[in-house]
Amino acid sequence: MAVKTILVSQPEPAKEKNPFNSLAEKTKVKIDFRSFIHVEGVDAQEFRKDRINLGDFSAVILTSRNAIDHFFRLAKEMRYTVPDEMKYFCVSEAVAYYLQNYVVYRKRKIFHGNLGIGSLVDVLKKHKKEKFLVPCSNIQNESIPETLDKEGLDYTNAVMYKTVCSDLSDLSDVKYDMLVFYSPSGIESLIKNFPDFKQNGTKIAAFGSTTSKAVVDAGLRLDVHAPQPGVPSMTMAIENFIKANK
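Above: the chain sequence. Below: its structure as tokens.
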């Protein structure tokens, strides 16, 4: 069956020029976007149950904009004034620049990697005496604690926000030829929202090995997966599939 409609389980890209728009123009396929998951902040009362005292830490490891937003939100809710001496270690330059929404950038001790926790290792090793706080979601990338443990750093994970399933009940009568997923949480949301979901002819595309595994573990058929050798992106993999199944 030819693919004519696609639902991507993520928010629509902010920029008009993006890979999915290019894919739609090339293949004449209708592409919609809908986030299957969303982030909710942990409130101060719930956070206190973890018995984490923000004042005990001299440095913060920031892995995303969500981590920044919820760190400063909780600090405000708990009436904790983040000291000017706090050191910030960010996984990328983009994350570091986002700190400007909360601190005077040039007056703070801010360090950043290129992309991912691995790129921060060298600078973290130079600050081994710090006590690190790691604001995170209830679903944390395993590579983060693995890397910090390997380097013998003194750190504490602090769950400040949660990734939860979105309500997709308005899609119950809408059918798509292909569903595209980027995380195991997206698959979880599909099953939670539609426990009687039958794949039948619907194609499922997944990005990344953990997402692909989640598709199979859910008893679904994986039709498209990326990255692969010579096919680094999801849109390229989908385009190849469409061309081969006209």
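The first strand starts at residue 5 and ends at 8.
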